[in-house]
From TrEMBL:
Alphabetized GO MF terms: 8-oxo-7,8-dihydroguanine DNA N-glycosylase activity; class I DNA-(apurinic or apyrimidinic site) endonuclease activity; damaged DNA binding
Keywords (A to Z) from UniProt: DNA damage, DNA repair, Glycosidase, Hydrolase, Lyase, Multifunctional enzyme
Amino acid composition bias (Basic residues), ranges on this chain: 317-327, 396-407
PANTHER family given in the database record: 8-OXOGUANINE DNA GLYCOSYLASE, N-GLYCOSYLASE_DNA LYASE
Family listed: Belongs to the type-1 OGG1 family.
Entry GO CC: nucleus
Compositional bias (Basic and acidic residues): 328-337
Keyword Cell inner membrane tagged: no
Originating species: Rhodosorus marinus
Class in the EC hierarchy, top level: lyase
Reaction it catalyzes: 2'-deoxyribonucleotide-(2'-deoxyribose 5'-phosphate)-2'-deoxyribonucleotide-DNA = a 3'-end 2'-deoxyribonucleotide-(2,3-dehydro-2,3-deoxyribose 5'-phosphate)-DNA + a 5'-end 5'-phospho-2'-deoxyribonucleoside-DNA + H(+)
Name of the featured protein: DNA-(apurinic or apyrimidinic site) lyase
GO-annotated biological processes: base-excision repair, AP site formation; nucleotide-excision repair
HhH-GPD domain segment(s): 134-300
Length: 417
């Protein structure tokens, strides 16, 4: 594919060309795919317009221009069209797929305009697997910190951009050789430390990266059965790995968001039940019957819609709480009943993201458009460990990486790194 340069980035001393990725008519909205719980190491540079990350051991800088995605390319570098087309799953014709989903389900029809440009990524299986081991009882910010720690501490340095250092995610061999449970615990991974070290060793025994890549050729049930044999991987984590990196487009990850929405909108008969393995499979089968062999893409649309709506609700809640505090300061005689906003405050993000369902706690909330309900739906605590055991600040406390030269991207392309 011929590459045309459409300008220069104009930052610092480097002159760069921008090449258009999106030549196939498929819409990609970076903010809808890089921040929604699939990938965790992209850095937002320009308030949602420009992003930087590492794909296949290369620094990649992307920017959004209306419906187009452009990527940064220095003259002499190999184009990234094929690499990024694979990463964004552009072989899947999402526009036609969404039209088919909308004809089958009114909830999807309602959601699609809100999440235009959402896609399922095709991630590196190794990074995806360890990212979702980190996701257990966790939130996006802390998952990102943990995954970035693994890359910076055990992976290969790639380049520096806009003051940020970027690293390749470590190979399974590098994790086995360098990562220890003690060091990970000292850096806030909590019980996940044992799973990361154990999973790396188990993967190495099975054939490392080659074994994982072979799973792309096996069916969904076989993949799930093999993944859950690894330390730290249950059904939901296995579903995420299978959908986002192993081409299992009919896999349905069920987290708190999807569980609540399913009970509210699709399977009310599950109200009051626990999310057992049997119920998990029952929910997945329901969506596969409804949406077919690409049901995982429908689930992603629903997840992003509810995820966005939850955060809009959280932002509104924070704004109202701020206004209430101001009113209390300026009107000290304000009565308690006048301070009520008339709706429940949504739970913290830590209680929402990637956490299992626990029927012992109920939190009332109103999430539009897919979660509007008069019911009190189940929410779980964010962690089963005490803060002292499971705190993470993202800063290495031992074995700080030595300072390394920050090469130009041209150096990186020539193998200088």
């Amino acid at each position: 594919m011929a590459m045309s340069f459409v300008g220069s980035f104009g930052r610092g001393q480097l002159r760069m060309g921008w090449g258009r990725l999106n030549r196939c008519g498929e819409s990609v909205r970076l903010e809808k795919v890089l921040q929604k719980g699939m990938a965790f190491r992209w850095r937002e540079i320009d308030e949602g317009r420009t992003w930087a990350g590492v794909v296949k051991d290369r620094l990649v800088v992307l920017r959004q221009e209306a419906e187009e995605v452009e990527y940064w390319l220095e003259p002499g570098q190999e184009p990234l069209d094929e690499t990024l087309a694979d990463y964004f799953n552009l072989r899947v014709k999402c526009h036609k797929l969404m039209k088919t989903f909308a004809e089958k389900d009114e909830n999807i029809a309602m959601a699609i305009p809100l999440v235009h440009g959402t896609r399922v990524l095709r991630l590196d299986p190794v990074e995806c697997l360890f990212s979702f081991i980190c996701s257990s009882n966790n939130n996006v910010k802390r998952i990102s910190s943990m995954v970035n720690f693994l890359a910076a501490q055990y992976g290969r340095y790639v380049a520096e951009y806009e003051g940020h250092q970027f690293y390749a995610f470590p190979t399974i061999s590098e994790l086995c050789d360098k990562a220890t449970e003690q060091e990970l615990r000292e850096n806030g991974f909590g019980y996940r430390a044992r799973y990361i070290v154990g999973a790396a060793r188990a993967l190495q025994e099975r054939g490392s990266e080659k074994w994982l890549l072979q799973l792309r050729g096996e069916n969904r049930n076989q993949v799930s059965e093999k993944l859950v044999e690894l330390p730290g991987i249950g059904k939901k984590v296995a579903s995420c790995i299978a959908l986002f990196s192993l081409d299992k487009h009919d896999e349905i990850p069920i987290d708190t968001h999807i569980w609540k929405m399913t009970v509210s909108k699709y399977m009310p008969s599950l109200k009051g039940k626990s999310l057992t393995n049997a119920v998990y499979d029952q929910i997945g089968d329901h969506y596969r019957t409804l949406f077919g062999d690409m049901a995982g893409w429908a689930q992603t649309v629903l997840f992003v819609t509810v995820f966005d709506d939850y955060h809009r609700g959280t932002s509104t809640s924070k704004k109202r709480k701020t206004e209430k505090r101001k009113a209390q300061k300026t009107e000290p005689g304000l009565k308690a009943e006048e301070e009520c906003f008339g709706e429940a405050i949504p739970p913290k993000e830590e209680d929402m993201y990637f956490s299992p369902v626990d029927s012992s706690e109920n939190v009332t909330g109103k999430l539009e458009p897919l979660l509007h309900s008069e019911e009190n739906l189940t929410m779980s605590p964010s962690s089963l460990l005490s803060p002292s055991e499971d705190s993470f600040d993202g800063k290495p406390k031992k074995r700080k990486p030595t300072k390394r030269r920050s090469p130009r991207i041209q150096d990186m392309a020539n193998g200088a790194c």
